[in-house]
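Milestone M4 deliverable, item 7.
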Amino acid sequence: MMKTIMTAMKTSISEVMETMFFLPVEFVDEPALKQIKALKGKKGKACRLDFSGDCSGSVILLTPRQLLMEMAENFMGESGESMKEDLLDGTLAEAVNMMAGNALRKIKTKVPFELSIPKLVPGTEFPENEGTLIINTTGPEMAVHITLG
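Output delivered:
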């Protein structure tokens, strides 16, 4: 199931980042631990969304502040200087919601997936194990981690 979700998540991330945030992406499928640690070290913001259905799990999106500001600017059509923390947090929550929701709806299941409300978590809580994708953008990298179980 993890391979199916990862494939759907990559497709979804590409679609969401390109259509909603106007940022093309490429993936590092099996990132080295040092890449994940370096991204966590940039004091990025993270947001977690739990899901349940045929299987349950969570999706965590970790985004450096600089990239999050660019995403918010592109999404909201406002300049970065006017962005307050709540707009950045809302952009991050909406991004993980769109990415996970779009990915999970593409998977054929007996029991439909249900999504929780996205919640902000400290970037330091981002896992450093299997299930992580590093996403290269035209600017900084971001990361997504999927946990099943």
